[in-house]
Specification:
The protein folds into two domains: about 5-225, Spore Coat Polysaccharide Biosynthesis Protein SpsA, Chain A, CATH 3.90.550; about 245-355, UDP N-Acetylglucosamine Acyltransferase, domain 1 (3 Solenoid). Helices cover about 20% and strands about 35% of the residues. The protein contains eight helices and 33 strands.
Length: about 350
Amino acid sequence: MRKTKGLLLAGGHGTRLRPLTYAGNKHLLPIANKPMLLYGLEHLKNAGIREIAVVLGPIREGVRELLGDGANFDVNLTYLEQPDPKGIAHAVMIAEDFVGEESFVVYLGDNLLKEGVSRFRRIFEERKADCVLGVTPVKNPSSFGVVEMRNGKPVDFIEKPAKPKTNLALIGVYVFGHSVFHAVKEIEPSSRGELEVTDAIRVMLREGRKIEVERTEGWWKDTGRPEDLLEANQLVLASLETKIEGEVSRGTRYTGSVAIGRGTKAIGTVTLRGPIIIGENCRIGPNVHIGPYTSIGDDCVLRNVEIENSIVMKGCAIESGKRIIDSLIGSFSTIQNSQARIQQGHKFIVGERSFAQV
């Protein structure tokens, strides 16, 4: 198989990638206690790709600190700057010198894809394609770039159509040959002011390039909204294996898949209903019920609370006396107890270092 490079987009390259509810780099939000961006990096690595360029958009905080030079992940990283959100095709354009004459995989950093990218790379090689792209049926195609098919072949590509003729959305994984660089130089900015990757692929189609459209195998999740993040957390946790590295009290009861990190202690009466993951150096209990489908980050303290289907990031302190559901709670936030305990579930979308009394 020929050498292939990777392009990992990390931080606000267009309107689709801008974080909607989080004052920071959405690509670093934890899914099952792992920053989202690392899933894309691992998929590229697992496909045998070791030379990867990380394209830094305007929202770039923390990316270099997380990834470094790539040595910790057994890859070689190069950083490319895209200070203005001019679109995915523009991100491709600025990577031309890095890519050279090689083929390359583009992976949007806010995507989660169960199967990874190895199959797409293999199809590109076996079919001698100029472009391979992943698609999946969606309920809201007007929110995505879509492909129109006829007799099993692509006939058009449209970005966020007002009246879509198809529900096949592009999932943000592309394999390109060098001909794409000519295509991105041929297009003009869209009405959104961006160079759309769908317009570049349309140019390739018009020029007779070989474009292969492949449906995903397994689940795919775009994480543009809080509810999408929670669903992604569910999907990843569904394959969690039980691993208890911390200490649990005699009063701790757990069912399903439960992972507890080193240095974490469950104290007093604690009920853990998997799948859930609890990070390192946490203090859980007494009177705590967690799960299912909940991630608790490192260094958290939870007392007198029920919490399920939620993401709690590192360093949080929660003693609410309440039932918390379907929530996204930012790092180093505090949710404090009020007087009355009621059974109604509370939902939170809480940014970093916030305080809430309920």
